[in-house]
Amino acid sequence: MEVAVAAIRQIVGFFSNGSLIPAAAGIKAAVLSLFFIALAAQAEILPEDSADAMYHSYDGGGVTVDGPSYLIRKGDNKNFSVSANYYIDSISSASIDVVTQGSPYNEQRTQWSGSVDYLHADTTMTVNYSYSNETDYQADTYGFSISQSMFGDLTNVSLGYSRGDDDISSNVDPGFDETADHQNYHVSLSQVLTKKLLMSVNYDALTDEGYLKNPYRNVRVLNDPDDPSAGFNFNTPETYPNTRTSNAISASFMYYLPYRAALKSGYRYYTDDWDIDAHTADVGYVHPLWGKWILEFNYRYYTQTAADFYGDLFERPDQQNFMGRDKELSEFTDHTVGFALSYKVLENGWGYLDKASLNFKYNHIWFDYDNFTDVRGSPAVGQEPTYDFDADVIQIYGSVWY
Amino acid sequence: MNRLIQWLKYTLRAGGFAGLLMTAVVNADTNSGPAPDFALKSHSGDNLRLSEFRGEVVMINFWASWCGPCRQEMPLLDELYTQYQPLGFTILGVNVEEDPSKANQLLKESPVNFPILYDNKSEVSKLYKVVAMPSTVLVDRDGNVRYLHQGYKPGYEESYQQQVRALIRE
Amino acid sequence: MNVKRIGSIILPLVLLISGCSSIEPWVKPYERAHLADPIMSFSRDPVSDSYLSHIYQVREGARGAEGGHGGGCGCN
C-alpha cells in the first residue's frame, strides 16, 4: 500500500508540474500506437503467460489492410510479466479520397511494442513502449500506468500516462519533415457491483500538438465562388489547427446470466475542441456451448458531429483559417454487427502447454456519411450523393497458455 | 466554482491522509486464539469435525476451482501432506464453492491425498473470516490458530514447511 | 474540464477511499465464482480487442476511454 502511495504521489507531481500542452489534431498512426495501452493488467495477479498469433483483415471502401500480429507474454509468476508484440498492416488503398485526389497505392506499416508489468501486493505498475514505422510516418509511444486493488479486490483503480512522438514525412516531397506530439492521461475504475455484475468506468484526456493533418489530402473548392455550375477542384491543401484537446468518458457493464452466459454493454461520450461530439454504444452476448465452444455476438453503434472546420465543399480557397475534408471529421454514423467463435483445444494440457484456443471473429461495419459526398464520376455541384460504404473485418487467431 | 474546487481539493487531501492512517490502524489481523470448530461433509462421504484432529497439527486451506493460485498450490500442499502426515499433521482442503462439480472434476484430473471438505454454504468461510483466496490457517496440537496466510505466491510453500515443522516439534 | 483539476481531485479521492477499510466487501472472496469465470472478462482476447479499437480509431474522430477491465477472481 505504501509503495502505491509513493508511486501515486509521483504521478500527482507529474500531473501538476508537467505543462499541459494545448491540444492539436490526432493523426492516425500516432493514435494507433496508443492502442497497445489498452492491454491493461489486473492488479492482484499477473497476466497469464501466453502467446497469440493472429491474422487480421479489413476490406472496405476500396481499402484492404491485412497482416499478422504476434504476441508473446512470459512472467516469473511472482512479480514480473513481460510481453512483446509484432504487428504488420499491409495496406492497399484505393479509398475514395485516394481515387478522387491521387492514385491507388500499396504500403506497409510495421509496429513493435513491449511492456513490463511489476506486481507488488495489490499494486501493478506497467511500462510500455511502441514503435510504428511506415515510409512516411514513424511514431514512438511511451506509457506508464499503475493499477491498485482495494476494498477486498472489489475495486480497481488505474491511472496511466502515455506520450507519443511522431515524425511525418512525405512520399512525394522528400524535403517534407514535420512532427506531432500526443499525450494521453487515463483513469479507470472497475467495480464489482454484485456477485454477477461488473462495472468499468474509463476516462481519457488527450492532447495533440503539431502537424495533425494529412500531407496528401486537399479540400474541395468551387472553381468560381459565384457559379457552382463551373464545377470544383482539389487544388487547395487542407489546413488544420495545430492543437487538439479531447475528452472521453465511458462506462461498461458485464452481467452473468444464470445458465452460464454473459451480457455486456457499454457507452462512451467523446468531445473535443474541434467541435466533434461522438456517442458510442455497444452490446454483446457471450454464450458458451457444448463445453469447448464460446460464441459471442456484438452490435456497436457510433455517431459523431463534424469538426467545425470541416467542409465537403468550400466556396473559396481562403474561406476559413482552417479547412478540412477528411471524412473521419465529417458528420456520420456507423453500425457494426459481429460474431466470434472460440474453440478450446488441449483442455488438459499437452507437455509444456496448459491450454490453447482457436478463434474466428467477423465484423461487418456500415459507414453512412451525412455531409461527405461521393464525387467519383464528377457529379454536378449540388447533385453529389452522400457517401456510404461497408467493410468486412476478419480475425483468425490461435492462443496458447503455458 | 473555483473556490468550490479549491475547498474540495483541500478536504479530499485531508481525507486522503486520514484514510492512510486508518488503513494502518484498522487492518489488524485476527490470527490467534482457538480455532473455531466446524463439521463438513468430506470427499469420501463422511462428515469430518475439526476437533476430531485435536492432538495433530492441522492446516486448513480454503480453495476454489476458479482460483488460479489455489490450483497452483494444491500439488505443493499434497507433497507437504505426504511428507509430514506420519508425524501427526493433516491438511483439510475446504472447497468454498456452491456447486462442487467443477472442484470434483479438478480432483479427478489431479487427485490429492489429503481430505477435501465441502463448504457449499460458506458457513466455515464466514466463521474464519476468509478475506483472500486462497487462505491457509495453521492450527497447533491444542487447537489454537497460530499462522495465517492470505493468497499464494510461489515461495510460500517454504514458510508452510518451516511452520509445520515448528508446530510438529512442540 | 481541465485535466490537471481532474488529476488533483481523483488522486486524493483514491487515497481516501482506499483508507476506508471499515467498509466490508459485500462480495466475499469465496463468492466470486461467477466473476472469475473467463466469459465474464471484459477483454478475453486483448490482442483482438486492441486490433478492433485500432480499426475504429483510424476511421472515426473519437478515441479513448475504450475497453473495460476488472472483476476476475480477486485472488491473492
Summarize the biggest pleated sheet of chain C.
Answer: none
> Which radius of gyration of chain B do the C-alpha atoms yield?
20 Å
Percent helix of chain B, as a range, is 40-55%
How are the strands of the largest sheet of chain B arranged?
1-8-7-4-5-6
The percentage helix of chain C is 40-55%
Q: What string gives the helices and strands of chain B in order? A: HEEEEHEHEHEEH
Structural domain tally of chain B: 2
Question: Could you give a short description of this structure?
Answer:
The complex is a heterotrimer of chains A (402), B (170) and C (76). Chain A is mainly beta and 402 residues long.
Walk me through the structure.
The complex is a heterotrimer of chains A (402), B (170) and C (76). Chain A is mainly β and 402 residues long. In chain A, 7% of the residues lie in helices and 59% in strands. Chain A has helices at 2-17, 28-34, 96-101, and strands at 50-60, 63-75, 80-93, 105-120, 123-134, 137-150, 155-169, 177-194, 197-210, 218-222, 232-237, 243-257, 261-272, 277-289, 293-304, 332-345, 355-373, 386-401. In chain A, the strands form 2 sheets. A 16-stranded antiparallel barrel of chain A has the order 1-2-3-4-5-6-7-8-9-12-13-14-15-16-17-18. The longest helix of chain A has 16 residues, at 2-17. Chain B has 2 domains: 1-28; 31-169, Glutaredoxin (3-Layer(aba) Sandwich), CATH 3.40.30. Chain B has helices at 2-26, 68-84, 101-109, 123-127, 156-169, and strands at 33-34, 39-41, 47-49, 57-63, 89-95, 116-118, 135-139, 144-150. In chain B, the strands form 2 sheets. Chain B has a 6-stranded mixed beta sheet with strand order 1-8-7-4-5-6, with helices on one face. In chain B, strands 2-3 form a two-stranded antiparallel sheet. Chain C has helices spanning 3-19, 46-59. Chain C is elongated, with a radius of gyration of 17 Å. The mean pLDDT of chain C is 79. The chains are: A mainly beta (402), B alpha/beta (170), C mainly alpha (76). Chains in contact: A-B, A-C, B-C. Chains A and C meet through α1, α2, β1, β6 and β7 of A and α1 and α2 of C.
